[in-house]
Amino acid sequence: MPAVDALVCFALYAANRTTTQAYRALLEPWNLTYPQYIALVTLWNDGDQTVGSLGEALQLDSGTLSPMLARLQAAGYVTRTRDGRDERVVTVSLTPRGHELRTELAHVPRCIAQGSGLPDADSARDLIDALHQLTAAMRELRDHPDDAVAAERATRAAS
């Protein structure tokens, strides 16, 4: 067994990469990427969004989000409108064609769920909860690496 197979980080990386590839295969007929798809999902479920709130929801910076939204707009799926009172605020809205995609892509979540090998919705929810906890913990580590290093050293010194 390769050494990387024993690393949590590699297992997450491999699962993420393969899941993204599965989405790519499912979304290819619509010429959509996974980030474009999750932007559409957010708009379908939560309605119009400012670029800022959409970026926050998708955890994407404006340098990544703006070109992606430009491509979705060029494809006719969304519009971007500047606020008349504050030109810095841009609202992203679905076009009628963008709304139609929801029906056309309704099979995607079911295909991913089936392909995941999870036996039921409760198992999926447990995995999602565990991944959210992991994300929060890694965000804490990212934001306070010195605390983690100090705690690890203290644990090592105590043993």
From TrEMBL:
Domain of life from the UniProt record: Bacteria
Record InterPro entries: ArsR-like_HTH, HTH_MarR-typ, MarR/SlyA-like, Transc_reg_Sar_Rot_HTH, WH-like_DNA-bd_sf, WH_DNA-bd_sf
Alphabetical GO biological process terms: response to stress
Keyword vocabulary terms for this entry: Cytoplasm, DNA-binding, Transcription, Transcription regulation
Domain HTH marR-type: 5-136
Coiled coil region boundaries: none
Localisation per UniProt entry: Cytoplasm
Matches recorded under PROSITE patterns: HTH_MARR_2 (PS50995)
UniProt key word Cytoplasm: yes
GO molecular function per UniProt: DNA binding; DNA-binding transcription factor activity
Chief location of this protein within or outside the cell: cytoplasm
Alphabetical list of Pfam families matching this protein: Staph_reg_Sar_Rot
GO CC annotation: cytoplasm
Name of this chain's protein: MarR family transcriptional regulator
Biological source species: Microbacterium testaceum (Aureobacterium testaceum)
